[in-house]
Amino acid sequence: MVTVIVAISCVHEIPFSPTTPGSGGNDPGTGGTGSNACDTSSFNYSTVINPLIQSFCVSCHGATTASSSGAGIDLSNYGKLLPYVTNGRFFGSINHSAGYSPMPKGGAQFSTCQITQVKKWIAAGAKNDTATGPTTVPVTVTCDTANFLYSTTIAPLLQANCVNCHSAGNPNNGGIDLSTFANAQAFALNGRLYGSIAHTAGYSAMPKGMSQLSACNITQFRKWIAAGAKNDLGGTTPPPTTPPAPTSNCSPDTVYFQNTIAPLIGSTCSMSGCHDAITKASGVTLVTYANIMKYVKAGNAAGSTLYTIVKSGSMPRGTIPRYTTVQLAQLQTWINQGAKQNFCTSCDTTTYTYAKAVAPLLTTNCVGCHSTASAASSGGGIDLSTYAQVKVYATNGRLYGSINHTPGYSAMPKNLAQMPACQIIQIKKWIDAGSLNN
Question: Residue 93 sits in which domain range?
């Protein structure tokens, strides 16, 4: 399996010009003026590569400094260095290749000669000429798309590529914590995890500032999610290698978090300027299931802060419309049913009337921002609260373009997962049939 590692990040306060230790000369990186100029024919690990790393990297990326200043990357010995050589991150960073974080961070780039030395060492097999430890980098590394267990594949990929930024203690995590299974599953099931790593239009491309994950790794994520984004840590049976087809498991008597509650809260509470991860109005963030559950008592809507404050009319504030009787009942039912992080996949694409399908979807996903009262302040001047207004945007193509995340349109719902394909089909069929008020 190809494990894609986060880019090497070592911060040096004062810019420097790296030199091979003991090389001498005013510009040893380009040949210098003395007898000990940089020699591109010499690239042993013990005498050239390791001294470079020890001089310019290990101050941040050492055994004792990696966790505090080196983004968890330890380059203190050959064995620790191997993974970063194998996946190309080490050379990509020191070479300042596109898609890699240029290193050393805050300092001058390695000289052309030194980069050539590293390149030749890697091309020759990146051998270890010291007496102990592994001797060469594995020649080939495979990636098995039939293997997508959370414990052995997904969690390590998240740790290597995402958790450095997306952890609970990182102030720049964007409100997204992927350090636990529950949180990772939430973003897997609402589509945001796959949309981001697949660089799908309308999602933030991740890992940010780095190369996209390999096609194999993306396939592993896709298969894991399609199989239910399960946690195998409690058992030994792996998920099937062929994802099962979605089943029609939606119950009309159940309110589902991913289908109804998450988009409802997203369009009325956790938008920019309110309870999103950046604004954190009154210190409250309602971006993830874990955040929301801090204000919910499962099975007890009357005792849940989220429900009581919405029911009282105190929230949403400002121009955001108060919850309708139907929305309030949905929130109450979801909490009383256990406030589960549940979802369902069935959807009837033969039902696409405005009253039964389109209007309810827009009310849940859009009207929080795009209402008569809120359109000017948070909805870009777009009001979707009445049939007449909806028809305008249905006719000019902007409604479908946005919910379908078509290039050239603003992807909606904003900062939330794209609506399920079935719901998009319902709206498209309604538009294709003439956008009737039926």
Answer: 1-138
Cα gap 188→307, rounded to integer Å: 26
pLDDT at 229 over 50: yes
118 with 4, same domain? yes
| pLDDT tens-digit map of 66-109 | 777 777 788 888 888 877 787 677 887 888 876 567 788 777 78
CA distance 341 to 388: 35
pLDDT value of residue 81: 84
Co-location of 6 and 89 in the same domain: yes
Tokens read off for 300: 């007890």
The answer for residues whose C-beta is within 8 angstroms of residue 400's C-beta and 6 or more apart is 394, 406, 424, 427, 428, 431
Residues 6+ apart with CB under 8 A from 306: 292, 295, 296, 331, 335
Claim to verify: residue 57 and residue 128 sit in the same structural domain: yes
Single residue among 276, 309, 336 that ends a domain in this structure: 336
Q: How many domains does the chain have?
A: 4
CB 173 within 8 A of CB 395: no
- Judged against a pLDDT cut of 90, whether residue 128 lies above it is answered with no
